[in-house]
Amino acid sequence: KLTTKKENIIVYTLLALSLSFYFWLNYSAFNTLNLFDRDLIGELQILWKVSQGINPHNTIFSIHMLADHWTLIYYPIALTYKFIPQPLFVLFLTILSYLGGALIIFKIAKLKLKSSLLSIAILLSVLLNPYIYLGLLARANTDVFSFFFISLSFYYLFKNKSIHFIFLALIAMSCKEDVALYFIPVGIWCYF
Question: Would the pLDDT of 9 be above 90?
Answer without folding.
Answer: yes
